Amino acid sequence: MALKGPCPALLLLLLVLLPACLALGQRETRHEKFHRQHVDFPKTSAPDARRYCNLLMPRRNLTTDACKPTNTFIHAGPAEVDDVCHSGGTLRTENYYDSKVPFELTICRLAGGAQRPPCNYRGRTSTQQIRVACMGGLPVLDGTNPGVLG
Ligand SMILES: *[C@@H]1O[C@H](CO)[C@@H](O)[C@H](O)[C@H]1NC(C)=O
């Protein structure tokens, strides 16, 4: 009987924590946000970089309230991108890591005019090393990354 003592308390804890965890699960983490904004693999097909940007920026919710001025999409698998925080990268400053190898990128820039949707982007492709901010061993969104090196 004495062993049963903790169980109601544990059950109560579970009942309190479970909804909290479910609610947390629905909120996008900084790492998930990084992937939504910056990782597209395999690369979504589009006739050219301009049309790619005009397709992907709204699709990734980067033009919801205002047109995000610039954004880089990385065309590599999520695990490969995350690895820049580990063996795939070199620590630069604080929590910033530079990738050891270049990545295929599409860089989107707002093409003048409206700052509110519908947004009009220019795009260019590039293969460059990237710089990411890492937290807890994972790339996170910090407003500036992924920086493009060189
Ligand atoms: C964009 O926002 C809508 C509405 O909030 C949501 O349903 C959708 O999942 C979001 N898309 C992405 C790629 O996060």
Helical region count?
A: 4
Estimated structural class:
alpha+beta
The portion of residues forming beta strands comes to 25-35%
The CATH homologous superfamily is termed Ribonuclease A-like domain
Bound molecules: 2-acetamido-2-deoxy-beta-D-glucopyranose
Helix and strand sequence: HHHEHEEEEEEE
The end-to-end distance, rounded to whole angstroms, is: 69 Å
3D structure, described in words:
Belongs to the pancreatic ribonuclease family. Its main location: secreted. It comes from Gopherus agassizii (Agassiz's desert tortoise). Residues 1-23 form the signal peptide. It holds the Pfam family RnaseA. The protein is α+β, with helices and mostly antiparallel strands. It has one domain: Ribonuclease A-like domain (P-30 Protein), CATH 3.10.130. Helix content is 31%, strand content 26%. It contains four helices and eight strands, in the order H-H-H-E-H-E-E-E-E-E-E-E. The chain has helices at residues 6-26, 30-38, 49-59, 78-82; strands at 70-74, 89-91, 96-99, 103-110, 121-128, 130-135, 138-140, 147-148. The strands form two sheets. Strands 2, 3, 6, 7 and 8 form a five-stranded antiparallel β-sheet that branches. Strands 1-4-5 form a three-stranded antiparallel β-sheet. The protein is globular. The mean pLDDT is 86. The chain binds 2-acetamido-2-deoxy-beta-D-glucopyranose. 2-acetamido-2-deoxy-beta-D-glucopyranose (NAG) binds next to loops.
